[in-house]
Design a protein that fits this description.
single chain; alpha+beta; seven-stranded mixed sheet; 5 helices; 12 strands; globular
Length: 198
């Protein structure tokens, strides 16, 4: 439905734009992500994602929005996007749905600083990992209720670590309708909390 769902800006460009121009456009629009899409040949497209602050390599909902536009305006049944890391993101239209296949990135052990946990309001972790490809710290906590009640101190959070794009906090679901819940905090790279992705 119009005016519903997760916002994403999509700019279909005919010519390459410089990074500074794309960043300025994304900052002015102010959505979590703005995608810039340019046809390479046939059903292959370059795609670049910008938050209000920086370029990021991957964004699910902006890829979905870009795919919807291409499927609605062309006759292709599949799309291969190439992102800024030269990763291929394969998307296909299956009846009235869109199916996306994204890369799976390895994670590694990390020591989460206590100052970060304090800023997030987390007393105890179940697990913690780091995705060096995306520069994201992943923290699992015990309950979805605890996750929903987090009220981070964003000024303290952004000062608790450097060199990362964000912190994803997850917990197993307390509902049979879902497997897990998560929230993504990224004052380093976008806005305080991304409402739609992570």
């Amino acid at each position: 439905q119009k005016f519903k769902g997760n916002p994403a800006a999509v700019c279909m460009v005919e010519n390459d734009l410089d990074s500074a121009t794309m960043q300025s456009i994304a900052t002015e629009i102010g959505f979590s992500e703005t995608a810039f899409v340019k046809q390479i040949i046939g059903n292959s497209y370059s795609i670049r994602f910008f938050t209000p602050k920086i370029e990021i390599p991957l964004c699910g909902h902006a890829t979905l929005a870009s795919s919807k536009i291409i499927f609605d305006t062309t006759s292709v049944a599949s799309i291969t996007f190439i992102n800024c890391n030269k990763d291929e993101l394969f998307v296909e239209k299956v009846e009235n749905k869109i199916r996306m296949q994204f890369p799976v990135y390895d994670t590694e052990e990390i020591d989460v600083p206590q100052i970060m946990l304090d800023a997030l309001g987390i007393d105890q972790m179940v697990d913690k990992r780091y995705s060096p490809h995306n520069r994201i710290i992943l923290i699992e906590i015990k309950t979805a209720l605890e996750l929903a009640n987090l009220k981070p101190d964003f000024a303290a959070l952004v000062n608790s670590h450097t060199g990362i794009n964000g912190v994803l906090i997850t917990a197993l679901s307390d509902s049979q309708n879902f497997d897990f819940h998560y929230r993504y905090f990224w004052p380093w790279a976008g806005t305080n909390e991304d409402p739609v992705t992570g």
